[in-house]
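Why this split exists: single-chain examples teach little about how molecules sit against one another. For that reason, every record in the complexes split bundles all components of an assembly together and asks for one structure covering all of them. Below is a record exactly as it appears in the raw files.
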Amino acid sequence: MARSPCCDKMGLKKGPWTPEEDKILVAHVQKHGHGNWRALPKQAGLLRCGKSCRLRWVNYLRPDIKRGNFSREEEDAIIDLHEKLGNRWSAIAARLPGRTDNEIKNVWHTNLKKRLKKKLATPNSKGHSTAAASKCDSGSACQSEPVNLNFPGKISSQPSSSEFSSITDSPIRNMEIHMNTGIKDEQMDSLESFPEIHESFWSDALSSDNSSMPSAFHTVNDESQLQFPLSPADALEVGYGHSSRIDDGMEFWYDVFIRAGGLQELN
DNA sequence: AATGCGAACAACCGCTCGTTG
DNA sequence: GCAACGAGCGGTTGTTCGCAT
């Protein structure tokens, strides 16, 4: 397929954007939108290619962009999501409001990779992130290996309870799903449809003393009672109770909750 | 003060995918 | 079915900045 010349065209500017260019681009997008990036620079009077304009807008000028350092929660979420999705930065960014794929990619390469390596080097590290992360480190593969999916978010694939094997402490967290062929397309699709977090989930969840754990979840007395797939009631009962894993973030809980049909309960 | 080096981030490049004629 | 095109994605590079020497 023939490639478009894009920025190679003579006369088009490259390199860092000036405040003036930013102003022009913002003003133009606010006034006319960005239906056609290729035509935009000409219309706006910018000596840039459409690709460059799009990138500048998406990664820097968009009004909903959250600037500043990543919180610990955001970093943990990135690690978890990277474990599930691999190097699919845009998919990860979609789960982190206000953050761009480029930003996440940069943070991953500069911070989080190192953090994971450190965790790996620590004998008592949690380990749940590191093994998979190291497999995925070089790219989006994460396939053709037994995958520790970290959580049974693939409940949609309706595994039998025998496919899960409880390993250590958390009733859900450490269930392993061994699959012969790794993550399948439909499972990735399932991850893609990760729902927006329902407002009332947060208000309920954060009413807990520990802001990282939904109050809606209580430790079950007998973890072996858990049956998969979980009913909404079971999901509400599923406990965690292991403070060392508190930093693992909320989205896991929400996913379990939603997949168990908990949203209807909230509504 | 000058220099070297690494971290962080912005931007570019090349590719794939989806759409359209 | 095919080619052309635009948009989007992920990998990579270039630049800037802060810190150590």
